[in-house]
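In keeping with the milestone schedule agreed at the kick-off meeting, the structural modelling team has produced records for the first pair of proteins. Each record is given below as a sequence line and a structure-token line. The laboratory manager (R.T.) confirmed that both were archived under the project's standard naming scheme.
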Amino acid sequence: MSAPPPVAVYVHIPFCVRVCGYCDFNTYAGMDALKGAYTAAVVAEIESWAPDIAGRSVTSIAFGGGTPGEMPPDSLVAVIEAVRAAAPLAPDAEVSLEANPGTTSLADLRALAGAGVNRISFGAQSFDAGELAFLDRVHTPEATAASLHLAREAGIPGVNLDLMYGLPGQSPAAWQATLDHALTLAPDHLSLYALTVEPGTPLDGRVERGEVTPLDPDAVAAMYESTATRLEAAGYRHYELSNWARPGHESRHNRVYWTWGDYLGIGAGAHGFLDGHRFENVANPRAYIDAVRRDGRAIAEAVRPDPATSMSDWLALRLRLIEGFDAAEFAECFGEPLEAVAGPPLDACRDAGLLEKSGGRLRLTARGRLLHNEVAVRVMLHLRERAEESAPSPRGGASGVA
């Protein structure tokens, strides 16, 4: 009998000092009084999953948010220990944490490193004070450098910086200055995201009122392309659309998402994927705590995606990886040849110069990386149409192609 597949664990910490105007994540400010009860609920939820993951190896634990670094270290350590008690932690497991620059002390970082945290990501976003103010960030450019040095001193071997580009009014030179500043700190990994205006956020309201004008998409694309060239020259490998790493420092936890692996989603609003089922927890922290106290878990929705959704999700995620994928991997997962399932839209994207075959693997071209969403939507629409055509007719027969 083969061993059960490994599993990753994502833990959502919804608390922030301030909710940034561009953010549409499940985050809350002014709820510090809930932290103790929230920790207890997270531990209890992990305990409830122990029978489901018994015998599986936990390959990674990732604390996201929100700002996990704002939690007391002993709370985070308690969560890590709860995971260890529920299932064996792999000897080389990645344990990662997101934090704000300037808010974590050396003593706190040492306590986390002692508990197994071996990767930390600082939300630097920019090294320009004016841009940080626009983004509602509470730290200074200097705080990022200080926090990175403290993490190194504490013995955390992997340090990542999150940066944002494509800000309203941002010039290529301004973005280049932030990128160059980041490189002087020699992080092990860089996650770079274009600013997007998410519906319902305060930034969206400012755009609607004409107070803010988003940067031209072509200018944003040019920043992305110049960044890829700059980071390659600096020794960073572009391994995922928004992520670059020094060799050996790629995010192993995020790779679980991109390669269709199993993961638990723990905490308020967390999403999980286990044994082909997707689930989402209650989002409000107070409601989450109440639900866990009452039921042991706080699942708001659980579904098993239909084949068309699963296939389109698989392809969209795998195409985020610069390496792409082998068509045999798709066939092994779904029992159907890729060409038979999604040949037409993939052929059209190849003809348009968005996809290419390289070393037997299908991947996005440099141009295609700028249009990943367009490729994903084309595939999704085709798979939905295919599913509708092959659905049984009202009389019980089959209509369309099989």
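The second protein of the pair:
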Amino acid sequence: MKGIFVLLSLILVAVAGCINVTQPPPAPVVTLPAIVAFSASPAEMKAGASATLLWNVTGATSVSIDQGVGTVSAAGTKAVSPTKTTTYTLTATNSAGTTTQPVTLTIVGISIAPGLERRPFPAVTLTETVFDFINEAPGASWQNIDGPVKFADNDIYSVINYHIDALMEDNVRYPRTLTILFKKSDFVQGTYPEITIPQGAHFVAKVGYVAGISPDWGVKFCVSFIETSTGNIKYFDCINAKQDGKLDAFDIDLSSIAGKKGRFVLRASLNCPSCEVAEWVDAKIIH
């Protein structure tokens, strides 16, 4: 009997040695989603234009973009038309967590429409004047609908001149303002001498009307910059000035053109069959 037990034990040991017990493979390690690309083209545009968001994500179970875009596929494009500078954030998620990446679409011009927000003045505390557009007005190249026009000439279409000791609609007297008198012209613009924009500079100006003037249609004032090396025109801001007992104001951060050389263009325009007169006040580049 004892011999049989020993024999059975040996058989069991031999069988056990022939069995190959396979362990289950380890669970795969899930890593965070990877955002391969996320961009806006163009990155800068005028208000009212369209830009395209482009993205490519790997390893995500869900992908979305804020600012109303919503859930999207792992790769794709989307046309957007923001009315102001907007940052879009791409969010990619899986079981390991979430990866995000922002992209900013910059609006470099503001479309004029009823209800355009009025900007307070002054909005900055910079004090050093780099360039004074009122003082330098006689040296600018002025133009109206009929072509070039000289500063202070009594042109048939318009007159560009100084107004001395001007009492403006805000009930403040200014020693000298830049007057634009429209006759038969619907716009008057001046292209100023070339300058280099320093770091930290702002363009500031007030615009409006002399006290007692009641404009028929109002005047739109605009600011742009022509870069010398490329000829590219950067449109900044426009204001529809209203006769309402206060001056409207520009405060434009020039960091996007810092270090560049070029010429500023100040433009005033209207669509009106009758005469109109409007003023640039304290127009400067400061830092």
